């Protein structure tokens, strides 16, 4: 779990450390997944580049996070051969006020609209729970864990849509995120990036040639 | 006994298998090592809470609204134009918007005043509301019910019970000159129409100028849309508003037979709309709390 960030803190740190030990701070942040560089806004008067981003539900949550999440879930279901169960549950969703029923089977949808994926977010924990029902005893732990991860993320996004907040609701948001990060490893296997896949393939090819020799 | 060559072959196969397993192991290991959750969208969620704390709810900044506005403001205008005049496309939405506001203003003004002052002409137009005042409407007339006896057989209600209830009702209410006769023999002859549906206009919550029509159905013993028979529950006012209980004089009842009855024996020949209901007995007189 990353520390919940404070941009002012970033800026202070950057200002304090940059001249003296630039290499070390860059290295330190590289490990956290933050790259230090200069962009178009650097050095503009009264502009703090770190403050320019605004959290955006459509692109960050619906089209960003949910897309990623469904990739992991798909991989997870494929490993346990439950895709058909997900599709069956997906087709059976009844209509409800402010919820439109999906028209296609889940695996046939190639392009998601914001509205569709918002609907997906509303019903995915239930659908997943239905798809993962009756596990074997060996699968039980994994299924429980996966369900918990997904519902933590969905809880977070639902809470992000609140129109007003109290300190309590904000702390709930953080706690959901913590729940996710604490045992996210269940999905780690299904998160292969393109670069990693090519690297793995290259290694595989080399090994095969080695064996052939 | 195995030949030497087969043993050699199987040894090679085992060696190949071991190498194969090692290969896939190393691949899985690499993927495990290289995979991570360090991508920007995952990281950015950690900032949500502090963002909300500083700037307010996220919904306000959502790009969804602006992307939808793009459809209203530009795409619709583009479709209606000849696709060349940019100026025309830009002004389209503004004009639509202004007209919409104007129409709403006129509507609001006419509601308050009851009249519209037409500019410059100096004359006043009384507005005629197209909607008549809301009232309960009986619909779905039953066939072959022209008298009370027929109505009772159609709905499978005992005739003596029906007559008893009507007589009781007539005696209770104030006697007017064109009220129904309190004689069973005369009542029997009066023309009657039975109905299957009562439309009740109910004002919307917090929007009392709009009405929703609730339909209370009463099919008697007949099936309703391939289902069972349907006799809806309704609220019935017994006694006045002054009858303060928890339910303020309302009781729950099943609608058994809504009907119209015309008193042809009197001169006015007035039509009365009545309904036979079966009242649900409430525990404790409909009170939620037992008074100490």
Descriptive overview:
- The complex is a heterodimer of chains A (213) and B (292).
- Chain A contains nine helices and no strands.
- By secondary structure, chain A is mainly alpha-helical.
- Chain B folds into two domains: 41-129, no CATH class; 137-286, no CATH class.
- In chain B, 40% of the residues lie in helices and 21% in strands.
- Chain B contains eight helices and eight strands, in the order H-H-H-H-H-E-E-E-H-H-H-E-E-E-E-E.
- The N and C termini of chain B lie far apart (100 Å).
In short:
Helices cover 62% and strands 0% of the residues of chain A. By secondary structure, chain A is mainly alpha-helical. Chain B is built from 8 helices and 8 strands.
Gyration radius of chain B, in Å: 38 Å
Order of helices and strands of chain B: HHHHHEEEHHHEEEEE
Shape of chain A: globular
Order of helices and strands of chain A: HHHHHHHHH
List the helices and strands and how they pair.
The complex is a heterodimer of chains A (213) and B (292).
Chain A: H1 7-17, H2 22-32, H3 49-52, H4 57-79, H5 83-91, H6 114-131, H7 140-160, H8 167-182, H9 194-212
Helix pairs in contact in A: 4-6, 4-7, 5-6, 6-7, 7-8
Chain B: H1 4-34, H2 40-44, H3 48-55, H4 63-80, H5 86-113, E1 115-117, E2 124-126, E3 137-141, H6 148-155, H7 159-172, H8 184-187, E4 192-204, E5 207-217, E6 233-237, E7 250-262, E8 271-279
């Amino acid at each position: 779990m990353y520390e919940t960030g404070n941009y002012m803190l970033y800026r202070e740190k950057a200002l304090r450390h940059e001249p003296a030990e630039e290499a070390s701070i860059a290295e330190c942040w590289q490990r956290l997944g933050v790259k230090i560089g200069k962009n178009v806004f650097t050095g503009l008067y009264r502009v703090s580049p770190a403050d320019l981003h605004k959290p955006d539900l459509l692109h960050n949550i619906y089209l960003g996070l949910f897309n990623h999440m469904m990739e992991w879930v798909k991989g997870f279901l494929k490993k346990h051969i439950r895709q058909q169960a997900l599709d069956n549950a997906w087709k059976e969703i009844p209509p409800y006020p402010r919820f439109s029923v999906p028209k296609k089977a889940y695996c046939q949808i190639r392009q998601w609209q914001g509205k569709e994926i918002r609907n997906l977010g509303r019903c995915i924990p239930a659908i997943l729970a239905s798809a993962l029902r009756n596990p074997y005893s060996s699968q039980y732990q994994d299924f429980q864990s996966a369900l918990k991860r997904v519902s933590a993320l969905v809880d977070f996004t639902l809470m992000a849509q609140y129109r007003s907040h109290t300190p309590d609701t904000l702390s709930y948001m953080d706690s959901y995120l913590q729940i996710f990060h604490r045992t996210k490893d269940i999905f780690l296997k299904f998160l292969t990036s393109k670069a990693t896949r090519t690297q793995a393939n290259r290694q595989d090819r080399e090994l095969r040639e080695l064996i052939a020799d | 006994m195995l030949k030497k060559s087969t043993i050699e072959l199987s040894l090679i196969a085992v060696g190949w298998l071991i190498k194969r397993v090692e290969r896939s192991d190393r691949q899985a290991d690499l993927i495990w090592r290289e995979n991570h959750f360090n991508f920007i969208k995952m990281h950015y969620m950690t900032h949500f809470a502090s963002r909300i704390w500083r700037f307010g709810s996220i919904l306000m900044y959502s790009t969804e609204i602006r992307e939808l506005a793009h459809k209203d403001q530009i795409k619709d205008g583009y479709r209606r134009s000849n696709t060349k005049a940019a100026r025309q496309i830009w002004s389209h939405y503004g004009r639509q918007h202004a007209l919409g506001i104007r129409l709403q203003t006129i509507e609001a003004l006419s509601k308050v005043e009851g009249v519209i002052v037409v500019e410059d002409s100096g004359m006043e137009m009384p507005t005629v509301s197209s909607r008549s005042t809301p009232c309960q409407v009986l619909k779905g007339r039953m066939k072959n019910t022209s008298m009370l006896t027929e109505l009772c057989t159609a709905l499978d209600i005992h005739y003596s019970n029906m007559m008893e209830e009507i007589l009781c009702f007539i005696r209770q209410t104030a006697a007017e000159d064109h009220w129904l006769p309190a004689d069973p023999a005369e009542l029997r002859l009066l023309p009657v129409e039975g109905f299957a549906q009562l439309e009740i206009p109910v004002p919307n919550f917090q929007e009392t100028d709009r009405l929703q029509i609730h339909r209370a159905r009463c099919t008697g013993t007949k099936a309703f849309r391939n289902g069972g028979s349907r006799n809806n529950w309704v609220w019935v006012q017994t006694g006045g508003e002054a009858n303060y209980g928890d339910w303020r004089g309302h009781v729950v009842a099943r609608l058994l037979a809504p009907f119209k009855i015309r008193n042809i024996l009197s001169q006015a020949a007035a039509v009365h709309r009545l309904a036979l209901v079966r009242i649900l007995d409430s525990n404790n007189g409909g009170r939620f709390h037992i008074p100490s």
